[in-house]
Each structure stands twice: as C-alpha cells, then as structure tokens.
Design brief:
The complex is a heterodimer of chains A (about 500) and B (about 100). Chain A is about 40% helix and about 15% strand. In chain A, α13 crosses α19. Chain B contains 2 helices and 3 strands. Classes of the chains: A alpha/beta (about 500), B alpha+beta (about 100).
C-alpha cells in the first residue's frame, strides 16, 4: 500500500485574510508583531507578512500554518471553522457578562498624612463633615445589589478609612446581612496606610476575610519624604501595620504598592530591595496621576512618561535578578500585561478594559452620596470638575447608566473604535480610558500621538515583549510564571 | 529648524494612507498634507528644537507603506470583522421578548 499524494488532501487553493493588526517591532524594524482580533499573535519578518497580506503565501510555508492556527488567515472554508475565534473573542471580553464588580465606598476624606502627591484631596483629621452618613451608606448598599455580578468586590477607601472604622464595620454588616438572600461571592478590601491598626479592627477583618492594600514607597528615607506625618514616623508605622496585618490575616492578604515621585526614579533597586527585605512577593510600580494634590505639586514631583519607562526598565532588570536568585517577586502591572500577552484570558482590570471599565467595571460611592464611574472621576470632582458625576446614591442604577455622562463615556470608551487605537496591534489587550484622556488632554477621545496613557501602555507592552523574546531562558520562565499566576487570581484593583 | 518635505507617488499611495501615516507624527511636528499633480506632499515642522528629525523622512515612508498595507487589510476584512464581533457578542444580548 502506498500513501496518497499530498495534493489528495489539499483543500481549495488560496486563503482568506482575517481581521488583524500589526506593528513594527521598535527593536527590529524589519519584523512585525501581528495580532488577531482575539489577541493571539505571532512575530514575522515584515516582508513575509507583506506577502501574506497581498495573498502570496504558499500553503507549504511554515508561516501559513502559523497564521492559520492563530486565525490571521483562513484556508478552504469547507475545511475550516471560525467558531473557535468567536470563542476566543468572547473569552477576551468575558468581563462584559458580569457588569460592575468593583464597588468603592469612600467612608471619609479625612487623613493624617500630608502627601504632596495625594490624588484624593484629603481633609484634616478633625473635619468630620467629610464622613459618609448613615443615609448615604444605606442607599449605597441598596445600589450595590442592584448590579448582577456574581462576585462583588467592596473596597473601602478614604482619606484614611481606619479613621471611620465604625462606618466600615457597619457597611460590612449591612452588606453581609443583605447577602444572606442574594448569595453573591463577596470580597472586602481596605485601602489604608495601616497606621494605628487596633487588635479589635484586625479581629473584625479576620472574621470577614478582609484583604489589606497599603502604600510602601520604598526605604525609610523615601517613604518618609513622600508620605509625611507631623511625627516623621510614617515608614515605621506602615511597616508595623503590614507586619501586624500579615500576622492576623495571613501573608497573602496584605499587598503594597509604590507611588513613584521624581525622587523615586533614582532608586529602583532600593525600592525593590525594601520589598524583598519585608518579605513581600509583589510590588506595584505606579506613576503619578494628574489629579488632586499631585497636580498642584506637579512642578516639584512630576516627570515625563519617558523617564518613568526608563525607571521601569531598570526596575524590571533588578526584579529579574531578584527572581533568578530564588526569591519570587512580581510587578503587578507587568504581570497583568504579560497575562494578556501570553494567555487567552482577560482579567477585567478596570483600566485595561474595552469597552471601558469606567461605570461598566467599577463604581465609586463618595462620602457625600455622589456616585462616580471611577476613582479618577471622583478626583476630578474634588478638583471642581463634575463632568463625570453619574448622580446620587438615592437614584436608580438605570438613571446612572442612561445619564448623559455615561453616554459620553460610552461614545469614547471602545478602544477598537478610537483614532489610532483602531489600528494598534495591542488594542485587543489594552483598554480605553476616556476619563484619563479628559483629565490630561481635555477630551475623552484624546490625541494618541501625545497621549501619556498610550505612551505608557505601548512602552510597557513593547518592553515586556522584548524582554520575553530576547531574554535568557531563565528570564522568560520568570515572566511566564508571572503571567500564569495572574490567571489563577481574581482581580482586585490596586488602590492608594 | 527647517521644514521637512516628503513626497509620495499618488498612484502607489492613497491619500488616506498618507494622511494616517502623517497623523502619527502630529505629537512632535506640525503637519501639512497636500495634493500635488501626481503626488501627495507631506510637510513636517518640528514643534521644538529638541525634536530629533534626522531620520524622520525614512520613518514617515515606512509608516506610509504600513498604512497602505492596513488599508488593504481593512478593505478585505472590515465587513467580516463586523459580522464576527456581532456573532461573538450575540449571547450578551437579551433574548427576544425579554426586557434588557
């Protein structure tokens, strides 16, 4: 018996181009990153890719099979199906099925810090007029359960929410009481300095499985400079709070993030070593935002996105050194971008969603009963710009969602439909952030060639992809381990 | 700094592809696109002295080539793209007869 000739099994000649996007690699202009509409991708020589687009690819070329398997081209329609592509696309957009999962309760604007970069326009400790009232709290809990998400993340923010822990406690009890009939999965997060944590507070948090999110800006000199208290002991108090929180709630329940000031940019290694010294296994390197006190002090503390990206590269280099030495330490934003690049899943991080996460992934209930689609919208309102207020907690969620504010957000909230983003190879993995563009450029659609958001996203995607592609086998393994870990955890938006 | 002028053959390049390519440089340059008799002319004026304009003409030519390629992809796939997105997200729509 002889095998039949190859042509016997061949389908119809030729192929159909499928929707795709591409980008020349900044580190090699002769090659391109080519992505499918669901975010699968490959890297090819520009000349080969050009032949593929113009219909000149031969079926026996390796690139043909690679492009076909990633739904960049489709051969004989009688022998192929696009159903898996639809499934992949739905998986990337799976957050759409749930509606808003992250609900931020601002229990008080009061804070004992005087940070120059504060994004939330804090108030002095004695100003109780800036606390959430009983009536606002009751209405906010009602609205929370008007949304259909099976998992609700309730994040308590301030100011310093521990200054009104009685309100945190009451809200938690009200939400759990209501949930006896609702049967949702609840997650409680408190974004706090963790200063002055009491045993009683920790006991309550343990009983209700709270997660703690705090700010640790680096070593003592840097943390105290960035986050001053009159007593000049902010670092000591934060470290004590982290250690007490970890002892009471478990190591995995306490996370920290770093807000980067101009002074931080010179200390990437010191910042990372501080996290290792404290036994932390994740770090979030967060650039300054153009809100609140950060805007007022921009001339002192601001820096360009290029400077941030240069810092990030140095920090990532050192993180890889630390990981190669056997200590696991991941950067959380990089982890999320890598998980988007290296796995088929989305994680629903509100700033990286398209349609936008503002109002569709998150809602903020401010201390005074105003409701916002994002923390950034609340910050703008604190600066006197109420463009993105959805209404009040007493109103219905239907009224919020059909408000002119939400219509404005929808109209500029789909990245795939925005100028320049529409053609970007990373768009399926990226997000639309109309409020950030409004804050920085005065326009919800924005101008991509001067967009800081775009520069940051593209810069980080490019650098992570380059490190993954060109790094040693050990570095590649480390970056892949971050990406895979991201698929095993639910998303909590890191907060200040 | 002086104006940089780059010409594109209007037979090989569409005005849309050239305009899209030129738009990518509007962050660092003031850009003018003009229809000539047989070519498309792009004029770039650096917005500041700090702009490195040494290889801008080569970059713009590459960008125009890529935009021409994107135009080809769009022409061949835009209808299919819309159909696929609609089909993929159809389960997110309310079933007929049900209130949203």
């Amino acid at each position: 018996m002889k095998f039949a000739a190859r042509q016997t099994f061949a389908g119809r000649a030729g192929y159909q181009l499928l929707p795709l996007r591409f980008r020349r690699l900044p580190w090699d202009q002769n090659r391109v990153l080519v992505t499918s509409m669901s975010g699968d991708w490959l890297i090819a020589q520009h000349s080969d890719f050009q032949r593929a687009v113009l219909g000149h690819l031969e079926p026996d070329e390796p690139l043909f099979a690679d492009m076909e398997s990633r739904f960049l081209i489709a051969s004989d329609p009688d022998r192929s199906t696009l159903a898996p592509l639809l499934s992949q696309y739905r998986t990337r957009k799976s957050y759409l099925a749930e509606g808003p999962q992250l609900h931020i309760f601002v229990v008080s604007l009061r804070c004992h810090h005087t940070c120059a970069y504060c994004q939330v326009s804090r108030q002095p400790v004695g100003e109780s007029a800036f606390d959430m009232s009983d009536s606002t709290a009751r209405h906010a809990v009602e609205r929370l359960f008007d949304f259909p998400a099976s998992t609700l993340t309730i994040e308590f923010q301030g100011g310093e929410p521990l200054l009104r822990f009685d309100r945190v406690r009451r809200l938690t009890e009200m939400i759990e009481q209501r949930n006896r009939s609702e049967r949702r999965t609840l997650r409680f997060v408190i974004a706090s300095t963790l200063h002055d944590l009491t045993d009683e507070q920790l006991s309550f948090m343990r009983d209700h499985e709270f997660e703690l999110s705090t700010s640790l800006d680096g070593p003592e000199w840097l943390h105290n400079l960035n986050r001053p208290r009159p007593e000049r002991d902010s670092y000591r108090r934060t470290i004590e709070g982290i250690e007490r929180g970890r002892r009471a709630l478990g190591e995995a329940s306490v996370s920290a993030l770093t807000t980067l000031t101009r002074r931080s940019l010179d200390a990437p290694q010191e910042i990372i070593e501080e996290y290792r010294k404290r036994g932390l296994h994740s770090i979030s390197l967060r650039p300054l935002s153009p809100y609140g006190f950060a805007r007022k002090t921009a001339s002192r503390s601001a820096y360009t996105m290029e400077e941030f990206l240069k810092f990030y590269e140095a920090a990532l280099d050192h993180l890889l050194v630390v990981n190669r030495s056997g200590y696991f330490l991941e950067e959380t934003y990089g982890r999320m971008l890598l998980s988007l690049l290296l796995t088929p899943f989305s994680h629903g991080y509100v700033d990286l969603r398209s349609p936008t996460g503002a109002g569709l992934g998150a809602l903020v209930y401010d201390y005074n009963g105003q409701v916002y689609p994002s923390d950034e919208a609340r910050m703008l309102a604190a600066m006197g710009d109420h463009s993105f207020s959805l209404g009040r907690v007493e109103e219905s969620v239907e009224a919020w969602m059909s408000s002119p504010t939400m219509q404005r957000i929808f109209s500029s909230g789909v990245a795939e439909a925005l100028p320049t983003c529409a053609d970007c190879a990373y768009v399926t993995l990226c997000g639309a952030d109309p409020i950030d563009h409004y804050a920085r450029q005065g326009d919800t659609i924005g101008h991509r060639p001067t967009s800081e958001f775009c520069r940051k996203q593209m810069g980080l995607f490019d650098y992570l992809l380059q490190r993954w592609e060109q790094g040693s086998a050990a570095d590649r393994e480390i970056l892949e381990s971050w990406a895979l870990r991201a698929t095993r955890r639910e998303n909590v938006r890191e907060a200040a | 700094m002086s104006t940089i002028e780059v010409r594109f053959d209007a037979v090989l390049f569409s005005s849309e592809a050239v305009t899209r390519a030129a738009h990518r440089y509007t962050g660092e340059y003031f850009v003018q696109v003009e229809n000539g008799i047989s070519d498309l002319i792009v004029r770039l004026d650096p917005r500041s002295d700090g702009v490195d304009a040494s290889r801008i003409a080569e970059h713009l030519r590459n960008s125009a080539l890529d935009e021409q390629l994107r135009e080809h992809v769009r022409k061949e796939t835009s209808e299919l793209h819309a159909v696929l997105v609609e089909a993929a997200l159809r389960p997110a729509l309310p079933k007929s007869g049900q209130e949203p």
